[in-house]
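WARN no homologs supplied; continuing
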Amino acid sequence: MREPNLYTRGGVFWLRATIRGVEHRESLRTRDLATARRLRDKRIEEISAARWRGERRRTWLEAVTEWAEHESGQIAPSTAKRYAVSLSMVKPHLSAYAIEKIDGQAIASMISARRREGATSATVRRDLTAISRVLDYAEAMGWREGNPTLSKRRLLKERRNPIALPIARDIEAVIAAASARFGALIHAARLTGCRQDELVQATWRGFNQRAKTLEVIGKGNKRRTISLSETAAAHISAQPVTLGCDLIFCREGGEAFSQAASDFTHVRRAVIAKAKKEKREFQRFRFHDLRHLFAVEALRGGMSIYALSKHLGHTSVKTTEIYLDFLTPEEAARAKEGAAQMPAQPRRSA
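OK structure emitted
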């Protein structure tokens, strides 16, 4: 027998009711039918009373939409994109909630679900940052009280995944499985050491073929100009120019690779499935691992750790020193020798 305004998800009862033309869905957080009935009646009464008084409760999705409109133009495009990706990933876990009902338990359930999906601690922390921005806005608008993400973020210690350098055979397999234009983007990461977003946003205006340089926009919306090898410069020069589009790497119609991370994941999954079917080895790697590979090979080729740090856009050479672990003692000494010869950086005045 179906219970009116109730349904189950994973054995847990949820409320689903349309009140004055607005559909409301939220978890009642119980597996007991009698308890669910009591909570259902109480929530319908509360929602009806609020609607009667003219108080409109926002759903999570409504809060996200209004927050995005408020933030439009106030944050860097790369930051907005990062938030959009996180909010898209948590949507299945929060969309059924009213904004004032998102509490510590709801956030904990979301974190558990994201981990089951394979998200790392670093990724979950980024998700929580995006959620936190929406909840802060909702609190400022008087739609809710408190922000339960703050304590959860402190408990999630961010650990770097160990670096595993991809091998040429596997890189070539992924490039071959991608479209020609997306494969060119992957190959460019291998040749330049640029981050994914830096290449997705790279423009012909920022490319100097004669000087073999490319201007990219890195973290914090900071611009830097990198030197390109002969091979990297030739690769960029060979890319087709799309009429009306200044992007170097884009889809055939001139559209940006706005979901490059997801696109790469889909291609990699296809390659893994094919390798498994053909009983071939394939070492899974991330797009970012191409940057690691570039860095290690640059140091092995004689680039100083200081020059590499500048090239990669690291704020401190200490960050770049993680790549020294992949070198022989002689190679590491040579890489650090170049840095030691650089003049000391002047201290900023207070």
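The chain has three domains: 6-52, 75-155, 168-340.
OK
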